[in-house]
Design a protein that fits this description.
Double Stranded RNA Binding Domain; D-Maltodextrin-Binding Protein, domain 2; five-stranded mixed β-sheet; 15 strands; alpha/beta; single chain
Length: 351
Amino acid sequence: MIEKCNQVSDSSLGRRRPHNVRMNSSGKPLSADDPHAAARGSIVIATRESRLAMWQAEHVQALLQSRFGLRVSLLGMTTQGDQILDRALSKVGGKGLFVKELETALQERRADLAVHSLKDVPMDLPAGFALAAVMEREDPRDAFVSPRYENLHSLPQGACVGTSSLRRVVMLRALRPDLRIEPLRGNLDTRLRKLDEGQYDAIVLAAAGLKRLGLASRIRDVFDTEAMLPAAGQGALGLEIRDDDAPLGAVLQQLVHRPTWLAVHAERAVSRALGGSCSMPLAAHGRWVGEQLQLSAALGHPGDPAAPLLRVVLQRAVTEAQEAEALGNQAAQALVEQGGRAYLQAAAHGG
């Protein structure tokens, strides 16, 4: 479990430290003096404080303790993405708002490692940081959650469905153009509470988060990936470190799940090539068919519900990250050739 945090004298967003971080004679965390925490045998994980984020950080904490004998503490933080709940992410800076404070903690050596839901991690990390590992993926699909209706097709005409993902909005409209789709922000528990209060007839959430928190019983149906293609990296955990921390990087490499690692490299390459952001309804998902990686990608128009959803499916043998990225770049180019450039221009100009 997380060690409870004391507020330090700097009260700015997210600046906290856990009780059990060892301090030097100057009152600074030892990680500020020793750049290689893994070599020292003790690391600090920076994490958001939502229940799901804490589960993910504690999962990594337990693995590092049991497999490598490391002393691991958690540094709980509140990010801007957690605080801004009255506006869509695409209007206030995108999903990078969920990781910025964690990266600041890494940069200032108040933490050594950050655990992220990979779909929240920008495609290009700032200088000085590295994605050291991607762990085995949970269920990557989207889940239909409703107290009254069994699935999307059982919703009555004009029913209200909650989501703030433009990707989900576009795909829901393709499946049920009659639905009224309303914004839904907040952590997983907040979203479920809003549903239970009757603000929505149904909501769409990532199946992985519900399963990790033991809430699989809330799932009434899961969307087939052909109908609701997942976001790049959905269901996977990414471990971010400072790029100069080679000892910790070597430890975390042992947690890499290679099939997931290669799949998400292809998915994230699609998004990177197209300049993917919260203002762009873009999906990419890789699955293994024997020894080959099948990559599906889709791009929707951000402002025109009548515009067709562009899709591509490619498949090839992939054994290295560079090959996965090449597959992703090829998929991105295929979407552009289908007419995607106009969609990208619309996204850049706010739809």
